[in-house]
Amino acid sequence: MPLPLINDYKTAIANAKGRFATLEFEPHLDARRSPVFLAGNFAGVFKVMAKGGDPMAIKCFTREVPDLPRRYAAVAKFCRTSQCPYVVPLQFLPAEVFVTSSVAPHTDYAVVTMPWIDGRGIGAIAELLCQRSNASALAGLTRAWGRLCLDLLRRGIAHGDLKHDNVLVSQDGRLKLIDYDSMYLPELKGLPSTMLGGINFQHPRRDVRHFDPAIDHFSMLVILLSLRALTFEPELFKRHHNGENLILIKSDFAQPERSDLLKQFGASPDFHVRDWATHLTKAAKAPTIRIPGIDAILTSATKIDASPAKPPAKRLFSFLS
């Protein structure tokens, strides 16, 4: 079934009284008195003020997501019960807003609600830190990213679309994941992926059949390597960021042996940049999207600082004859 356009939802949000089954709120308006929203591939997210005065996000779907109620029931339960510090609580309301549309039936449509997170994407924060050449803060951001990724791995779950604008840095400096449309949870095993994620963060061989805890491995490493490289060469952000990436792009993964940036990483004074670039190159050329040893890579990232790391000392063994 076709779904309403984002402008149809804007009309409903702007005239909320009588349109919503349970929600009571005031829309957050811009200077032109139009509802404030962020548009994505599958939905638009509107900022509103809930009845109690707290800012809230309302997600309205513009493209059909297969098994949407089942997926969001599982995600809502996880966010409510897991005590994972990187997700926010949400509600899935299956028939909440009545929308009139020129392209879709006039009927009630599902929405997802969650607290509005005041923060900036990890890409925007990285840009700011690069402009200030703040190597210490970039190292801290890299450590925080490593801890977030390890938390997901240890839970056996995956976000499914890790990229620079789906990870927020809240005002208190904590990382928060947003946009859970493609999240993998064990109870969703057997379903296809709803999307393949941002092309500048994903393994070149990922397809809809991949839906398991390994779907985040490649994007975890892409972001990790990017942040670590920027720690020592912050000018790379201005040179390589295009709005849809951090510094690496799809072509770097499709033919890693021809990537000037990956070659540059190979000459870095930092062992981790060199080592993680080697792992990324091998992963991009591998027939599977799973990266062996990704947990060890991420664990090493939680211990780094802003100084170039040296290779780990080789262990010496003595043998008795």
Structural features:
single chain, 321 residues, alpha+beta, 9 strands
Note the beta-strand portion.
15-25%
**Overall morphology:** globular
Helical coverage, percent range: 25-40%
- Class from secondary-structure proportions: alpha+beta
Order of helices and strands: HEEEEHEEEHHEEHHHHHH
Number of discrete helical segments: 10
Mean pLDDT: 94
> What gap, in angstroms, lies between the N and C termini?
76 Å
Low-confidence stretches: 317-321
Specify the biggest β-sheet: 6 strands, antiparallel
How big is the Rg?
21 Å
**Overall number of strands:** 9
What does this molecule look like?
The structure is a single chain. By secondary structure, the protein is of the alpha+beta class. The chain has helices spanning 6-14, 68-81, 122-131, 135-155, 217-232, 235-240, 250-254, 260-265, 271-285, 294-301; strands spanning 25-27, 37-39, 43-50, 55-61, 91-99, 107-115, 119-121, 167-170, 175-177. The strands form two sheets. Strands 1, 2, 3, 4, 5 and 6 form a six-stranded antiparallel β-sheet that branches. Strands 7-8-9 form a three-stranded antiparallel β-sheet. Helix 4 packs antiparallel against helix 5 and helix 5 packs antiparallel against helix 9 (271-285). The longest helix is centred in the middle third of the chain and has 21 residues, at 135-155. It starts with 5 loop residues before the first helix and ends in a 20-residue tail after the last helix.
Write a brief structural summary.
This protein is α+β, with helices and mostly antiparallel strands. The chain has ten helices and nine strands. Helix content is 34%, strand content 15%.
